[in-house]
Write a structure and sequence with these properties.
Blueprint: H1 36-66, H2 70-83, H3 87-109, H4 113-146, H5 156-196
Length: 197
Amino acid sequence: MRTNQTATPASYTAPQSFSGLAPGGAAVPATRSKATGPLLVGATVAMGLMAGLFFAFDVSVMPGLAASDDKTYVTAMQHINKSIENGMFGLVFVGAFVATGVAAWLLHKAGRRQAALWAALATALYVVALMVTMGVNIPLNNQLAAAGDPSQIQDLASVRAHFADSWVPANMLRTALCTGGLLALTRSLVLHGRSER
């Protein structure tokens, strides 16, 4: 008995219409970038430097200045705020954000979800630290600079108190945020290293 069905040639393969699959059903590996590892390392180092800088103010610079007289306090902070405006600090300050954010994006693009989430958390924590810096610390630095020569300021105690009462706790918050970002980046780096094995 004959049928009208036509046998499909053995050599014929149906076109693959599913994204992420190669002909024959094999999964296509997610896009990887050789820059991810170095970026994660750079981001971790930069975040650690920022956390260390803020921590140094918390445990040595500000407590040391707190024991000084008003004129010494205001003079020292004016000089510190001016001196820190240099290329090296700017590179690390901005680089920590850029490297962390780009690393998170590359990890996401490569399909490394857990590592990407930790890097994204680090980015978010650093963004908050930037907001604190821009919203509290820098305006206070500018106000202290605008106060002028400490020897000409009539009420040094008031100027000092206005600065210290907000600047010190804001810096402690920056330390905590950057330390959290450092821990998150360390976890991301570990997960990325495991996936590379």
